[in-house]
Amino acid sequence: MTETIIKRDGRKRTESVNVDAIYETVFTMLKRTGFDDVADSYAAYHLRRCREREKNSRLMRIYDDITNKKAADSDIKRENANINGDSAMGAMLRYGSEGAKEFNELFVLKPEHARAHHCGDIHIHDMDFLTLTTTCCQIDLIDLFRGGFSTGHGYLREPNDIISYSALACIAIQANQNDQHGGQSIVNFDYSMAEGVKKTFAKRYRDNMVRALELLCGMEDAKERYVSLFKEMANREIHPSLVQNEPFRAADSRALTSLGMDEPTIARLQAFAHKKAVEETDRATYQAYRNHAKAEVNANFEVSSSKFPNGANRPKFIFVHALSRLATDEPKDVANELRQLVKDYPKSDVSEMAGMIVKGIESGRTLGSGTFDVGSLWSRRSSQARQEADSISQGRALQPDRLV
């Protein structure tokens, strides 16, 4: 067989020959002479030997680049924009990354998949982490929070208000980045936080109804009796909402009737509880803004836009939402939102302040990068008013320009 292959090779002794050419000749001859099993075994052996040679060549060339070239001259050292490939730890990370890629391509992937990746027919993103963890997968907070979740070091129960929702969102991202490679992405953040807003509103409605029963109706055991009825409605999936829904209103009316309330009183109680709950949600939104919880502001703004487009507090939601964008958005975009606020709600108590900010932007003044603390303005005005009151009590007359 060997002599036959040599005779049929057809090359002159002086011509050079490589390993792949020899393989092609031997494999073809084995097939032609009926040694199919031997030919297949030889093909598998040749593939293994090729991969062994590859292990001893390509990876070493990559390591040579990492060692001896600057990042400006090496694509490999610039692969991750977040890492300085010229630093000691940056280079060490590249050694590990490229070694892991080579290992996965040679020993983990199927040969056809490795060949397709190597040839550029497909691209396996972040292949260095192929056997270690997931990469850049999105976090579904709605599903994660439902029933609680484990951080790996402890178990957290399902959150029940917007403050817990926003805090646990940070914990979830932190816990996930310890286990998952790549970016942390939450595509439904506003919708996830809206679940917390909904629960917060339900609690505020319940608490305000208890206060109303105690203050308006003199019911001393209102908390015990109404909370029990409220839980029964919740167990039947009947909940209050920012837009008063008929199933809850009817169930709540029956519950209040069982407590001895007549229809006019029930209407007053429900109106009071709903109004106060909405106002407290408004205050929670502003507090979240002052705490830099922009996601909560956005969530409440979306609820206001979809559920209360003509609500009494709508200008405030728009104003706070615009202010929350000061540090992240273009000044012209913030000005446009405030300008629309002034146009749509000219008599609102926040329109004058919104107009002042717009004029400042139009005159070229630079917006601050932090939050705009409306509360501090009221504090300064109150302090000024107290000073004027003191001057009057001491017999000092105000200047004409202060008599406004």
Task: Supply the key terms.
single chain; mainly alpha; two-stranded antiparallel ribbon; 1% strand; elongated; disordered C terminus
Blueprint (SSEs and pairs):
Layout: H1 2-9, H2 19-32, H3 36-55, H4 58-68, H5 88-108, H6 111-119, H7 141-145, E1 149-150, E2 155-156, H8 162-179, H9 189-217, H10 222-235, H11 246-258, H12 263-290, H13 294-307, H14 314-323, H15 331-344, H16 351-362, H17 374-393
Antiparallel strand pairs: 1-2
Helix pairs in contact: 2-3, 4-5, 8-9, 9-10, 9-12, 9-13, 10-11, 11-12, 12-13, 12-14, 13-14, 14-15, 15-16
Question: How does this model look, in words?
Answer:
- This protein has 17 helices and 2 strands.
- The chain has 404 residues and is mostly helical.
- It has a two-stranded antiparallel ribbon with strand order 1-2.
- Strand 1 (149-150) and strand 2 (155-156) form a beta hairpin.
- The radius of gyration is 36 Å and the shape is elongated.
- The termini are far apart.
Summarize this, please?
Helices cover 64% and strands 1% of the residues. The chain has 17 helices and two strands. The longest helix is centred in the middle third of the chain and has 29 residues, at 189-217.
